[in-house]
Amino acid sequence: MGSKREGYISWDEYFMGVAILSGQRSKDPNTQVGCCIVSQDNKILSMGYNGLPIGCSDDEFPWDREGDDPLDTKYVYTVHSELNAILNYRGGSLEGAKLYVSLFPCNECAKAIIQSGIKEVIYDCNKYEGTPSVTASKRMFDAAGVKYHQYKRTGRKIEIEL
Ligand SMILES: O=c1[nH]c(=O)n([C@H]2C[C@H](O)[C@@H](COP(=O)(O)O)O2)cc1CO
Ligand SMILES: [Zn+2]
User: Fold this and answer.
1) Of 159, 160, 100, 155, nearest to 125 (Cα)?
2) Which terms are listed as keywords in the entry (predicted)?
3) 111-128 CB burial, b ≥16 within 10 A, e <16
4) Per-residue DSSP letters for 75-133?
5) Atom 4 (ligand 1): residue with closest C-alpha?
6) What is the whole-number distance in angstroms between the Cα of residue 7 and the centre of ligand 2?
7) What are the tens digits of pLDDT across the range 129-157?
8) Are 64 and 72 in contact (CB under 8 A)?
């Protein structure tokens, strides 16, 4: 009897890989964020990346980080990857699900994560650690019983020819 193949990717590598790949769809020139929501029994339920709402053109709305007028920045228009993944879900309840995301969730996404019933957040980068947004997210996750931990990178490199 033959034995199983070795070197296959772990569940964590799989789901964070899907999250990061999803982020490659982002048109944001500065930060591309991707998200993958997974059931407790490791089935992918939804994915998302940061982008503009349906009908808002990527070429007509601004991607600037700064501007004299907030209306000339991306911040008032973009939908975050986590919210997109939650809103993209077509199957009913996300109660008890896990969320893999390439950047630690902001306070607005934290609210949506908590309210949708997601119970665990696995994040990769946390480049805004220490900001009020991230601190507020942690405070709300702690109060609501949502667990969060950083993804442990394995160093595995995956090349895909497309
Ligand atoms: O949790 C998040 N999820 C998410 O999708 N984003 C998006 C919104 C913006 O398009 C981009 C952040 O842009 P910047 O790093 O240039 O401020 O990342 C940002 C955060 C946290 O800041
Ligand atoms: Zn957010």
Assistant:
1) 100
2) Hydrolase
3) bbbbebebbbbbbbeeee
4) GGTPBPHHHHHHHH--SS--TT-EEEEEEPPPHHHHHHHHHHT--EEEEEE-TTTTSHH
5) 80
6) 34
7) 999 999 999 999 999 999 999 999 999 99
8) yes
Adjacent-strand bridge partners of 148: 121
| 82-106 pLDDT per residue, tens | 999 999 999 999 999 999 999 999 9
Q: Which atom of ligand 1 is nearest to the CA of 30?
A: 16
CB 53 within 8 A of CB 105: no
Token readout for 47 is 């994915």
Query: With the CA atoms of 157, 158, 161 and 162 taken in that order, what torsion angle do they form, in degrees rounded to the nearest 10?
Result: -120
Name the active-site residue from 82, 95, 108, 161: 82
Is 83:112 a contact under the CB 8 Å cutoff? yes
Instruction: Measure Cα distances from 78 to 27, 49, 56, 61, 106 in Å.
Output: 10, 10, 10, 10, 13
